[in-house]
Design goal:
Length: 72
């Protein structure tokens, strides 16, 4: 594989040897999400696991959003 980039190789490969953060799948309002637990009852959305384009526009499901898991 050839990777063309203007970034130094050290920046591209930074963190490649670290274990990935464990994630879990949840459903919020019928939308499947992959989230990483932050601690307590909070989680950050990693990605939307849906085929419906409208789900990607929902502000409470956008990647990076912190959601409360108390209701799940």
């Amino acid at each position: 594989m050839i990777l063309y980039t203007v970034l130094p190789l050290e920046d591209v490969l930074d963190g490649i040897e670290e274990d990935p953060t464990p994630t879990m799948m949840i459903s919020v309002d019928g939308i499947s999400l992959e989230v990483e637990q932050l601690g307590g009852f909070e989680a950050r959305v990693v990605r939307v696991l849906s085929t419906d384009p409208e789900h990607y526009l929902s502000p409470h499901c956008q990647p990076g959003t912190v959601i409360n898991l108390a209701g799940f």
